[in-house]
Amino acid sequence: MGNRLSKLDILLHGCDYNPEQWLGYPEILKQDIEYMKKAHCNVMSIGIFSWAFLEPEEGVYNFGYFDEIVKNLTENGIKIILATPSGAKPRWLAEKYSETLRVGKNNIRDIYGFRHNHCYTSPVYREKITKLDRLLAQRYGSNENVILWHISNELGGECHCELCQEAFRNWLKQKYNNNLNKLNHAWWTGFWSHTVTDWGQIHSPTENGEPNAILTGLYLDWKDFVTYQTTDFMNEEIKAVKAVNKEIPVTTNFMGPYQQLDYHYMKDFVDIISWDSYPEWHSSRGNVFEAHSIAFAHDLHRCLKNKPFLLMESSPSLTNWLSFNKLKRPGMHKLSSMQAVAHGSDSVQYFQWRKGRGGSEKFHGAVIDHDGKAEGRVFEDVKEVGVLLEKLSGVMGSETKADVAIVYEFKNRWAIENAQGFCNIDKKYKRTCINHYREFWKRGINVDVIGIDSDLLKYKILVLPMLYSISDKTIDRIEEFVANGGTVVATYATGYVNENDLCYMGGFPGGKLKEIFGITANEIDTLYEDEANFVIMNDKRYKVIDYCELITPASAKVLGTYERDFYSGKAAVLENSYKKGKAYYIAARDTGELLNDLYQQIIISEGLEYLQLPYGVTIHTRQNKKEKYVFVENYTEETQTASLCGVYTDVETGQIYSDPKVFLDKYDIRIYRENL
Ligand code: GAL
Fold this sequence. Notes:
By secondary structure, the chain is of the alpha/beta class. It has three domains: 3-157 and 249-393, TIM Barrel (Alpha-Beta Barrel), CATH 3.20.20; 404-605, Rossmann fold; 617-675, Immunoglobulin-like (Sandwich), CATH 2.60.40. A hairpin with an 8-residue loop joins strand 17 and strand 18. Beta-D-galactopyranose is lined by residues 153-154, 276, 278, 313, 319, 351, 361, 364.
């Protein structure tokens, strides 16, 4: 990267640090630095919510206290991630310039309050924040201790104001080459007489106008535009800070398989990916469920740039915004922090350093509690992670090698979740992707979670769960993948519509997909929540729920058939040979066993290395040219064992083992290094 971050040879360990809340408590600010060192923290993110302090009145700047914070951190060797403070606006800005306040889906403009709710189109907001950004860059950019820009905070949400409507119309004019006929066709406006005859008639989807699911083409364009415009706002901030100093890379903190923005678009504009991870450990869903779900999200972020990412925020103990805010049980902090590293993070960072005295986050987990002591269970847990990260510095920058890719598409999610049809309560797109992912996770197989525009040809297995919306171009790329010897796995509801949500003509799945899978999907049956069917495959009976698609096989071989209903005996699981590759089609939603057995078969026939691990135990690896790091994780409450082949050094103890049998306590993680 050739920037300050890439020159580091340490994994980052630190927090969001909000000293503004403590300016009246100088003894606390002094103590913070001492405690940070004690906690083995080497980085702090500052400035995230500092606007009202840095610019208390329009054009009046106050950097004094910030200079002091920057100086203290720098002198004590604590690196700085410097945020642009656009995530929360000062009151004076909202009072003087109402255009900076967002207009909601109800067409009502907000009054001042909350955060993350500015109009991202507003020229005034852009002007005021980029001026402050430039000043921050000029004042602190030459400090080598500032290693990264944290642009805004958790960008998201929508604004429906007139400025945004105008920008949306202009974006559409460009997309449709000023041609309303093209737009009318893409949005299928002949439906319910919704023909657009003038660009000025176009309005974003709102509650009292065009709801999301009526013209899905409009909704999909709006979602694309919101991503585009949010990115455009972010880019103005990036431009402002980079104009001053190019050595400091930029990131913005993403939020997992988030529904609102398309991170596959945004990823190209930042230098490194970072994200905020808040799992619900110890819930009734179980830690194994949580573990593979979060692993999926970590892998998604790693694959955005196919490079290590940063865990920008996590809780050192509990959150405060869930329905039930449970403490992390002993062991879970180390396990969940190292899980992020196992999946490609080069940092473990927390929200936040110290619990505030007031405000809604006063009971959110933090490294320093209201008792003000650098001791106790949470502090010791954090320190243990800091010490371990210091021993893991060799991991920095190492890569994850994966032969399997699962496609998770933000745009597909928008399309399928807003389709009126199937089950209208919850289509479970994200969960379906994670269920397929789990089959590899539990066998210790690294997986890439990718967007469909990624390079597909490097994988052996490509999984397309519910990829309902597929463009012609994508169909060609899938064809190329299978024709070249790849194995593709798809499910019910694949290839129904194109990128504008227009149904494919001539039968599903669209175009050449029928040939690739050797089938036609004729109809899809949605089951009630208390209904089930069964699939018979290799003389075994599997329960299926939610969806049963009715398939007519052409060249495909039938592996499993439905047991019940009027489609009893008809194909439910199929395998097709296509040119040099193979294509599997699963027409019904299984409850776990079917995917387990089918993927076992596929993994063996593809010759992928896998491990037979106890339930809730898994292994993930990262490697560089010289070494491989092996993370052995136990998410269960029981003591477990796992066997490894080869010579390994335990990173924590320095002990060397040959073909070790690894003993894992409850919530244990062992990390080994293998020389390559
Ligand atoms: C994040 C946010 C932080 C803090 C945290 C609490 O979403 O970026 O500022 O609010 O949640 O969990």
